[in-house]
Amino acid sequence: MSKLMYVSDKTFAQEVLQSPQPVLVDFYADWCGPCRAIAPIVEEIAHELNTKLKVVKLDVDQNPETAMQYGVQSIPTLLIFKNGKEVERLIGYMSKSKLLSKIEPHLS
Fold this sequence. Notes:
The chain is of the alpha/beta class.
């Protein structure tokens, strides 16, 4: 699978909801400091887990519909989807080890 990709309001359903593997969605904005801080961690996870997890980023300024649909009120918000359903919601910056501890239960 691909490592890290960007999705939009138009491609969200196809890339995330219809994905056969779990998906981590990073809701972010370019101006957001904590978003920039967690971005390298998200990228590392995308590379390390690329056979088990799809990792995508969605810019909330460019794609407000999807952010509103999922009630994203602060960023960064990381949502994990499995079989088209949200199974985990993580808000704010966190360490790589904490993020991995939240992701790993959804990889089986």
